[in-house]
Amino acid sequence: MKIEDMILVSIDDHIIEPADLFDKHLPEKYRDRGPKFQRMPDGTDTWVFQGEVMGTVGLGAVASWPRDEWSFEPVGHAEMRPGCYDHHQRVRDMNANGVLASLNFPTAAGFAGAWLAGKSDRALSAVAVSAYNDWQIDELAGDYPGRFIPMGILPLWDTDACVLELERIAAKGCTSVSFPETPYANALPSFYGDHWDAVLEAAERLQIVLSMHIGGAFNLLTRPEGAHMDQLIILSAQLSGVAATDLITAGVFKKFPELKIALSEGGIGWVPFLLDRMDKHMWNQSWTHLDIGAEDATTIWKKNFLGCFITEPSNLRLIDRMGEDTVAWECDYPHSDSTWPESPELLLKELNAAKIADDVINKITWENACRFYRFDPFKHTPKEQATVGALRALAEDVDTGTTTKAQYRERYAAAHH
Protein backbone atom coordinates (compact mmCIF):
# COMPACT_ATOMS: atom_id res chain seq x y z
CA MET A 1 0.00 0.00 0.00
CA LYS A 2 1.19 3.51 -0.79
CA ILE A 3 1.14 6.14 1.92
CA GLU A 4 -1.01 8.50 -0.13
CA ASP A 5 -3.68 5.79 -0.52
CA MET A 6 -4.08 5.11 3.20
CA ILE A 7 -7.22 6.17 5.08
CA LEU A 8 -6.73 7.08 8.74
CA VAL A 9 -9.32 7.35 11.50
CA SER A 10 -7.85 8.05 14.94
CA ILE A 11 -9.86 6.86 17.92
CA ASP A 12 -7.73 8.54 20.55
CA ASP A 13 -6.96 12.23 20.31
CA HIS A 14 -7.41 14.97 22.89
CA ILE A 15 -9.02 18.38 22.80
CA ILE A 16 -8.10 21.33 25.00
CA GLU A 17 -11.46 22.91 25.81
CA PRO A 18 -11.98 26.38 24.27
CA ALA A 19 -12.50 29.33 26.60
CA ASP A 20 -16.08 29.95 25.45
CA LEU A 21 -17.36 26.37 25.72
CA PHE A 22 -19.73 26.88 28.65
CA ASP A 23 -20.65 30.45 27.70
CA LYS A 24 -22.05 29.04 24.46
CA HIS A 25 -23.56 25.76 25.62
CA LEU A 26 -24.63 26.15 29.25
CA PRO A 27 -28.24 27.35 29.73
CA GLU A 28 -28.21 31.04 30.61
CA LYS A 29 -29.63 30.57 34.11
CA TYR A 30 -26.64 28.42 35.08
CA ARG A 31 -23.82 30.41 33.47
CA ASP A 32 -22.92 32.49 36.52
CA ARG A 33 -22.37 29.24 38.49
CA GLY A 34 -20.91 27.16 35.67
CA PRO A 35 -17.25 26.39 34.89
CA LYS A 36 -15.24 29.58 34.37
CA PHE A 37 -12.17 29.93 32.19
CA GLN A 38 -9.45 31.97 33.90
CA ARG A 39 -6.08 33.18 32.66
CA MET A 40 -3.54 33.36 35.47
CA PRO A 41 -0.90 36.10 35.85
CA ASP A 42 1.82 33.67 34.71
CA GLY A 43 -0.03 33.03 31.43
CA THR A 44 -1.34 29.57 32.30
CA ASP A 45 -5.04 28.85 31.87
CA THR A 46 -7.37 27.16 34.34
CA TRP A 47 -11.00 26.25 34.78
CA VAL A 48 -12.74 26.94 38.06
CA PHE A 49 -15.93 25.09 38.99
CA GLN A 50 -17.63 24.85 42.37
CA GLY A 51 -14.51 26.15 44.07
CA GLU A 52 -12.08 23.70 42.48
CA VAL A 53 -9.42 24.39 39.85
CA MET A 54 -8.32 22.34 36.83
CA GLY A 55 -5.55 23.24 34.40
CA THR A 56 -3.60 21.67 31.52
CA VAL A 57 -0.18 20.10 31.97
CA GLY A 58 2.45 20.57 29.31
CA LEU A 59 2.58 16.94 28.20
CA GLY A 60 -1.04 17.31 27.11
CA ALA A 61 -0.24 19.96 24.50
CA VAL A 62 3.23 19.33 23.09
CA ALA A 63 2.37 19.30 19.37
CA SER A 64 5.31 20.90 17.50
CA TRP A 65 7.19 21.94 20.67
CA PRO A 66 10.88 20.99 20.85
CA ARG A 67 11.28 18.05 23.24
CA ASP A 68 13.43 20.00 25.66
CA GLU A 69 10.34 22.13 26.42
CA TRP A 70 8.14 19.16 27.35
CA SER A 71 7.18 18.87 31.03
CA PHE A 72 4.35 18.39 33.50
CA GLU A 73 4.30 22.12 34.19
CA PRO A 74 0.94 23.89 33.60
CA VAL A 75 0.47 25.79 30.35
CA GLY A 76 -2.02 28.11 28.67
CA HIS A 77 -3.54 28.51 25.23
CA ALA A 78 -1.01 31.20 24.34
CA GLU A 79 1.84 28.65 24.47
CA MET A 80 0.03 25.95 22.51
CA ARG A 81 -0.33 25.16 18.87
CA PRO A 82 -3.80 26.58 18.03
CA GLY A 83 -4.98 23.18 16.82
CA CYS A 84 -4.94 22.05 20.45
CA TYR A 85 -7.96 24.20 21.37
CA ASP A 86 -9.32 25.67 18.12
CA HIS A 87 -11.26 23.04 16.19
CA HIS A 88 -10.98 25.00 12.94
CA GLN A 89 -7.20 24.79 13.20
CA ARG A 90 -7.47 21.19 14.42
CA VAL A 91 -9.00 20.16 11.11
CA ARG A 92 -6.09 21.77 9.28
CA ASP A 93 -3.63 19.84 11.46
CA MET A 94 -5.58 16.65 10.77
CA ASN A 95 -5.32 17.34 7.04
CA ALA A 96 -1.58 17.90 7.35
CA ASN A 97 -1.29 14.47 8.98
CA GLY A 98 -3.63 12.80 6.51
CA VAL A 99 -6.21 11.96 9.21
CA LEU A 100 -9.81 11.82 8.04
CA ALA A 101 -11.62 11.61 11.39
CA SER A 102 -10.83 11.88 15.08
CA LEU A 103 -12.33 10.89 18.44
CA ASN A 104 -11.32 13.35 21.16
CA PHE A 105 -11.09 12.71 24.90
CA PRO A 106 -11.62 15.61 27.31
CA THR A 107 -8.86 17.52 29.07
CA ALA A 108 -10.08 20.06 31.65
CA ALA A 109 -13.22 17.95 32.20
CA GLY A 110 -10.89 15.30 33.63
CA PHE A 111 -10.40 11.59 32.93
CA ALA A 112 -13.78 10.34 31.73
CA GLY A 113 -15.21 13.73 32.71
CA ALA A 114 -14.78 12.86 36.39
CA TRP A 115 -13.52 16.33 37.41
CA LEU A 116 -16.51 18.07 35.87
CA ALA A 117 -19.02 15.55 37.20
CA GLY A 118 -17.64 14.97 40.67
CA LYS A 119 -18.65 18.14 42.48
CA SER A 120 -20.82 18.67 45.55
CA ASP A 121 -23.69 20.29 43.64
CA ARG A 122 -24.54 17.28 41.53
CA ALA A 123 -27.49 18.88 39.78
CA LEU A 124 -25.24 21.70 38.55
CA SER A 125 -22.56 19.18 37.60
CA ALA A 126 -25.08 17.24 35.49
CA VAL A 127 -26.00 20.43 33.63
CA ALA A 128 -22.32 21.17 33.00
CA VAL A 129 -21.79 17.62 31.71
CA SER A 130 -24.68 18.03 29.26
CA ALA A 131 -23.25 21.36 28.09
CA TYR A 132 -19.90 19.70 27.45
CA ASN A 133 -21.61 16.97 25.44
CA ASP A 134 -23.58 19.50 23.40
CA TRP A 135 -20.30 21.21 22.53
CA GLN A 136 -18.78 17.91 21.36
CA ILE A 137 -21.85 16.94 19.31
CA ASP A 138 -23.22 20.25 18.02
CA GLU A 139 -20.08 22.34 17.62
CA LEU A 140 -16.98 20.16 17.38
CA ALA A 141 -18.58 17.44 15.25
CA GLY A 142 -21.40 19.64 13.95
CA ASP A 143 -19.18 22.27 12.38
CA TYR A 144 -17.20 19.65 10.45
CA PRO A 145 -19.48 16.74 9.53
CA GLY A 146 -17.54 13.56 8.93
CA ARG A 147 -14.35 14.77 10.64
CA PHE A 148 -15.09 14.14 14.32
CA ILE A 149 -16.67 11.22 16.17
CA PRO A 150 -18.32 12.96 19.14
CA MET A 151 -17.23 11.80 22.59
CA GLY A 152 -19.63 12.21 25.50
CA ILE A 153 -19.06 12.17 29.24
CA LEU A 154 -21.42 11.19 32.07
CA PRO A 155 -22.49 12.46 35.51
CA LEU A 156 -20.70 9.49 37.06
CA TRP A 157 -21.85 10.00 40.64
CA ASP A 158 -25.51 9.39 39.73
CA THR A 159 -26.33 6.27 37.70
CA ASP A 160 -29.90 7.39 37.01
CA ALA A 161 -28.58 10.65 35.60
CA CYS A 162 -26.03 8.66 33.56
CA VAL A 163 -28.82 6.68 31.91
CA LEU A 164 -30.79 9.83 31.09
CA GLU A 165 -27.71 11.46 29.57
CA LEU A 166 -26.90 8.35 27.54
CA GLU A 167 -30.41 8.39 26.11
CA ARG A 168 -30.23 12.12 25.40
CA ILE A 169 -26.92 12.07 23.55
CA ALA A 170 -27.75 8.85 21.69
CA ALA A 171 -30.78 10.64 20.26
CA LYS A 172 -28.37 13.34 19.02
CA GLY A 173 -26.17 10.79 17.26
CA CYS A 174 -23.38 10.31 19.81
CA THR A 175 -21.99 6.75 19.74
CA SER A 176 -19.40 6.79 22.53
CA VAL A 177 -18.73 8.08 26.02
CA SER A 178 -15.49 8.28 27.95
CA PHE A 179 -15.79 5.96 30.95
CA PRO A 180 -13.31 5.29 33.80
CA GLU A 181 -11.24 2.16 33.19
CA THR A 182 -11.11 1.30 36.89
CA PRO A 183 -13.86 3.28 38.65
CA TYR A 184 -12.73 2.11 42.11
CA ALA A 185 -9.46 3.99 41.59
CA ASN A 186 -11.54 7.16 41.51
CA ALA A 187 -13.73 6.65 44.59
CA LEU A 188 -16.49 4.98 42.56
CA PRO A 189 -17.88 1.43 42.79
CA SER A 190 -16.19 -1.28 40.72
CA PHE A 191 -17.74 -3.51 38.06
CA TYR A 192 -18.11 -6.30 40.63
CA GLY A 193 -21.69 -6.11 41.82
CA ASP A 194 -24.68 -4.40 40.25
CA HIS A 195 -23.97 -0.68 40.80
CA TRP A 196 -23.32 0.05 37.12
CA ASP A 197 -25.87 -2.36 35.66
CA ALA A 198 -28.39 0.28 34.61
CA VAL A 199 -25.64 2.29 32.89
CA LEU A 200 -24.17 -0.76 31.14
CA GLU A 201 -27.65 -1.89 30.06
CA ALA A 202 -28.33 1.53 28.56
CA ALA A 203 -24.98 1.61 26.77
CA GLU A 204 -25.63 -1.86 25.34
CA ARG A 205 -29.19 -1.02 24.32
CA LEU A 206 -28.22 2.29 22.72
CA GLN A 207 -25.08 0.80 21.09
CA ILE A 208 -22.84 3.36 22.78
CA VAL A 209 -19.19 2.35 23.10
CA LEU A 210 -17.57 2.82 26.49
CA SER A 211 -14.16 4.26 25.60
CA MET A 212 -11.73 3.70 28.47
CA HIS A 213 -8.55 5.76 28.35
CA ILE A 214 -5.46 5.13 30.42
CA GLY A 215 -4.93 7.47 33.36
CA GLY A 216 -7.89 6.73 35.59
CA ALA A 217 -6.08 3.71 37.01
CA PHE A 218 -2.97 5.65 38.05
CA ASN A 219 -4.25 5.71 41.62
CA LEU A 220 -3.92 1.92 41.80
CA LEU A 221 -0.14 2.24 41.74
CA THR A 222 1.72 2.71 44.98
CA ARG A 223 4.81 4.39 43.63
CA PRO A 224 8.11 3.82 45.41
CA GLU A 225 9.95 6.71 46.98
CA GLY A 226 12.36 8.26 44.52
CA ALA A 227 10.67 6.83 41.44
CA HIS A 228 11.09 8.97 38.36
CA MET A 229 8.13 10.21 36.32
CA ASP A 230 9.35 7.81 33.63
CA GLN A 231 8.17 4.88 35.75
CA LEU A 232 4.58 6.10 35.69
CA ILE A 233 4.63 7.00 31.99
CA ILE A 234 5.91 3.53 31.06
CA LEU A 235 3.63 1.58 33.40
CA SER A 236 0.44 3.48 32.57
CA ALA A 237 -0.31 1.59 29.38
CA GLN A 238 -0.16 -1.76 31.16
CA LEU A 239 -3.06 -0.79 33.40
CA SER A 240 -5.48 -1.39 30.52
CA GLY A 241 -4.97 -5.06 31.26
CA VAL A 242 -6.36 -4.49 34.74
CA ALA A 243 -9.49 -2.90 33.26
CA ALA A 244 -10.02 -5.79 30.84
CA THR A 245 -9.52 -8.35 33.59
CA ASP A 246 -12.02 -6.59 35.86
CA LEU A 247 -14.67 -6.42 33.15
CA ILE A 248 -14.33 -10.04 32.11
CA THR A 249 -13.99 -11.67 35.55
CA ALA A 250 -16.81 -9.52 36.94
CA GLY A 251 -19.13 -11.24 34.48
CA VAL A 252 -20.06 -7.98 32.75
CA PHE A 253 -20.42 -9.69 29.37
CA LYS A 254 -22.54 -12.49 30.76
CA LYS A 255 -25.10 -9.84 31.74
CA PHE A 256 -24.50 -7.54 28.75
CA PRO A 257 -23.25 -9.71 25.88
CA GLU A 258 -23.44 -6.94 23.25
CA LEU A 259 -21.66 -4.24 25.28
CA LYS A 260 -18.70 -2.67 23.44
CA ILE A 261 -15.48 -1.52 25.16
CA ALA A 262 -12.60 0.37 23.53
CA LEU A 263 -9.33 0.56 25.46
CA SER A 264 -7.40 3.66 24.46
CA GLU A 265 -3.67 4.37 24.62
CA GLY A 266 -2.95 1.16 26.47
CA GLY A 267 -1.51 -0.40 23.34
CA ILE A 268 -2.02 -4.03 22.39
CA GLY A 269 1.17 -5.68 23.64
CA TRP A 270 -0.45 -6.95 26.82
CA VAL A 271 -3.40 -8.49 25.00
CA PRO A 272 -1.91 -11.82 23.78
CA PHE A 273 -0.37 -12.55 27.19
CA LEU A 274 -3.57 -11.71 29.05
CA LEU A 275 -5.74 -13.82 26.74
CA ASP A 276 -3.35 -16.78 27.08
CA ARG A 277 -3.37 -16.39 30.83
CA MET A 278 -7.15 -16.03 31.15
CA ASP A 279 -7.96 -18.81 28.71
CA LYS A 280 -5.74 -21.21 30.64
CA HIS A 281 -7.28 -20.04 33.89
CA MET A 282 -10.77 -20.99 32.74
CA TRP A 283 -9.89 -24.70 32.59
CA ASN A 284 -6.89 -24.93 34.91
CA GLN A 285 -8.64 -23.15 37.78
CA SER A 286 -12.08 -24.57 37.05
CA TRP A 287 -12.52 -25.24 40.77
CA THR A 288 -13.38 -21.52 41.22
CA HIS A 289 -16.45 -21.97 38.98
CA LEU A 290 -15.90 -18.56 37.37
CA ASP A 291 -18.68 -17.83 34.87
CA ILE A 292 -17.72 -15.09 32.41
CA GLY A 293 -20.50 -15.77 29.95
CA ALA A 294 -18.28 -17.53 27.41
CA GLU A 295 -15.99 -20.53 27.19
CA ASP A 296 -12.87 -18.38 27.21
CA ALA A 297 -11.67 -14.79 27.35
CA THR A 298 -10.57 -14.78 23.71
CA THR A 299 -14.18 -15.21 22.60
CA ILE A 300 -15.20 -12.18 24.65
CA TRP A 301 -12.24 -10.10 23.47
CA LYS A 302 -13.05 -10.71 19.82
CA LYS A 303 -16.72 -9.87 20.25
CA ASN A 304 -16.71 -7.02 22.75
CA PHE A 305 -13.35 -5.21 22.74
CA LEU A 306 -11.34 -2.92 20.53
CA GLY A 307 -7.67 -2.54 21.37
CA CYS A 308 -6.01 0.69 20.32
CA PHE A 309 -2.36 1.47 19.61
CA ILE A 310 -0.10 4.31 18.49
CA THR A 311 3.04 2.37 17.64
CA GLU A 312 3.56 -1.38 18.13
CA PRO A 313 6.66 -2.47 16.18
CA SER A 314 6.72 -5.92 17.80
CA ASN A 315 3.15 -6.72 18.70
CA LEU A 316 1.58 -6.16 15.30
CA ARG A 317 3.20 -9.50 14.47
CA LEU A 318 0.78 -11.12 16.93
CA ILE A 319 -2.37 -9.70 15.40
CA ASP A 320 -3.66 -13.17 14.52
CA ARG A 321 -3.75 -14.03 18.24
CA MET A 322 -5.83 -10.98 19.06
CA GLY A 323 -7.97 -11.01 15.95
CA GLU A 324 -7.55 -8.66 13.03
CA ASP A 325 -10.99 -7.16 13.69
CA THR A 326 -10.09 -6.11 17.24
CA VAL A 327 -7.26 -3.63 16.63
CA ALA A 328 -7.41 0.03 15.66
CA TRP A 329 -4.94 2.89 15.31
CA GLU A 330 -4.75 6.13 17.28
CA CYS A 331 -2.78 9.35 16.81
CA ASP A 332 -2.94 10.86 20.34
CA TYR A 333 -2.67 14.47 19.11
CA PRO A 334 -1.51 16.74 20.80
CA HIS A 335 -0.07 14.55 23.60
CA SER A 336 3.54 13.53 24.01
CA ASP A 337 3.02 10.02 22.61
CA SER A 338 1.54 11.36 19.38
CA THR A 339 3.09 10.60 15.99
CA TRP A 340 1.73 13.81 14.40
CA PRO A 341 2.60 15.06 11.77
CA GLU A 342 4.28 11.90 10.45
CA SER A 343 1.69 9.31 11.45
CA PRO A 344 1.19 7.74 8.01
CA GLU A 345 4.91 7.23 7.47
CA LEU A 346 5.58 5.76 10.91
CA LEU A 347 2.47 3.58 10.90
CA LEU A 348 2.99 2.11 7.43
CA LYS A 349 6.61 1.34 8.22
CA GLU A 350 5.51 -0.77 11.21
CA LEU A 351 2.69 -2.43 9.32
CA ASN A 352 4.99 -3.38 6.46
CA ALA A 353 7.66 -4.68 8.85
CA ALA A 354 5.01 -6.93 10.40
CA LYS A 355 4.02 -8.10 6.89
CA ILE A 356 0.41 -6.98 7.31
CA ALA A 357 -1.63 -7.43 4.12
CA ASP A 358 -3.34 -4.42 2.56
CA ASP A 359 -6.85 -5.60 3.44
CA VAL A 360 -5.86 -5.94 7.10
CA ILE A 361 -4.11 -2.56 6.99
CA ASN A 362 -7.45 -1.05 6.02
CA LYS A 363 -9.10 -2.77 8.97
CA ILE A 364 -6.51 -1.38 11.37
CA THR A 365 -6.40 2.16 9.99
CA TRP A 366 -10.14 2.80 9.58
CA GLU A 367 -12.54 -0.09 9.01
CA ASN A 368 -12.51 -1.57 12.53
CA ALA A 369 -12.91 1.83 14.17
CA CYS A 370 -15.74 2.89 11.89
CA ARG A 371 -17.62 -0.37 12.43
CA PHE A 372 -17.15 -0.30 16.19
CA TYR A 373 -18.26 3.33 16.54
CA ARG A 374 -20.95 3.08 13.85
CA PHE A 375 -19.29 5.90 11.93
CA ASP A 376 -19.72 6.24 8.16
CA PRO A 377 -16.42 7.74 7.00
CA PHE A 378 -17.67 8.52 3.51
CA LYS A 379 -21.08 10.00 4.29
CA HIS A 380 -19.69 13.52 4.00
CA THR A 381 -16.31 12.88 2.33
CA PRO A 382 -16.10 10.78 -0.84
CA LYS A 383 -13.60 7.96 -0.45
CA GLU A 384 -11.21 9.38 -3.03
CA GLN A 385 -11.08 12.63 -1.01
CA ALA A 386 -10.56 10.82 2.30
CA THR A 387 -7.07 9.49 1.67
CA VAL A 388 -3.82 10.70 3.18
CA GLY A 389 -2.77 12.13 -0.16
CA ALA A 390 -6.02 14.00 -0.79
CA LEU A 391 -6.16 15.47 2.73
CA ARG A 392 -2.53 16.54 2.72
CA ALA A 393 -3.10 18.32 -0.57
CA LEU A 394 -5.53 20.57 1.33
CA ALA A 395 -2.89 21.47 3.90
CA GLU A 396 0.21 22.38 1.94
CA ASP A 397 0.29 25.78 3.68
CA VAL A 398 0.20 24.29 7.20
CA ASP A 399 3.50 24.72 9.05
CA THR A 400 4.30 21.48 10.88
CA GLY A 401 7.82 22.45 11.87
CA THR A 402 9.16 22.79 15.40
CA THR A 403 7.84 25.88 17.20
CA THR A 404 8.80 27.01 20.70
CA LYS A 405 6.45 28.18 23.42
CA ALA A 406 7.94 31.67 23.16
CA GLN A 407 7.17 31.78 19.43
CA TYR A 408 3.57 30.70 20.09
CA ARG A 409 3.24 33.40 22.77
CA GLU A 410 4.40 36.03 20.30
CA ARG A 411 1.94 34.86 17.65
CA TYR A 412 -0.90 34.68 20.17
CA ALA A 413 -0.21 38.18 21.43
CA ALA A 414 -0.16 39.54 17.88
CA ALA A 415 -3.41 37.76 16.97
CA HIS A 416 -5.21 38.96 20.11
CA HIS A 417 -3.79 42.48 20.22
Strand tally, please? 12
Strand order of the largest sheet: 8-9-10-11-12
Topology pattern, helix = H, strand = E: EHEEEEHEHHEHEHEHHHEHHEHEHHHH
How many separate helices?
A: 16
List the domain count as a whole number: 1
- CATH top level class name: Alpha Beta
What name is given to the CATH topology? TIM Barrel
Q: Superfamily at the CATH H level? A: Metal-dependent hydrolases
Rg estimate, integer Å: 21 Å
Tags for this model:
single chain; 417 residues; TIM Barrel; five-stranded parallel sheet; 16 helices
Give structural notes.
It is a single chain. By secondary structure, the chain is an alpha/beta fold. It has one domain: Metal-dependent hydrolases (TIM Barrel). The protein contains 16 helices and twelve strands. The protein has helices at residues 21-25, 87-97, 114-117, 122-143, 159-171, 197-206, 229-236, 240-249, 252-255, 270-284, 297-304, 319-322, 343-353, 358-372, 388-393, 405-415; strands at residues 8-14, 36-39, 45-49, 52-57, 74-75, 99-105, 148-149, 176-178, 209-213, 261-264, 305-309, 327-329. A five-stranded parallel beta sheet has the order 8-9-10-11-12. Strand 3 (45-49) and strand 4 (52-57) form a beta hairpin. Helix 5 (159-171) packs parallel to helix 6. The longest helix has 22 residues, at 122-143.
Describe, in short, the structure shown.
It is built from 16 helices and 12 strands.
Layout of helices and strands:
Blueprint (H helix, E strand, L loop, with lengths): L7 E7 L6 H5 L10 E4 L5 E5 L2 E6 L16 E2 L11 H11 L1 E7 L8 H4 L4 H22 L4 E2 L9 H13 L4 E3 L18 H10 L2 E5 L15 H8 L3 H10 L2 H4 L5 E4 L5 H15 L12 H8 E5 L9 H4 L4 E3 L13 H11 L4 H15 L15 H6 L11 H11 L2
Parallel strand pairs: 1-6, 6-7, 8-9, 9-10, 10-11, 11-12
Antiparallel strand pairs: 2-3, 3-4, 4-5
Helix pairs in contact: 5-6
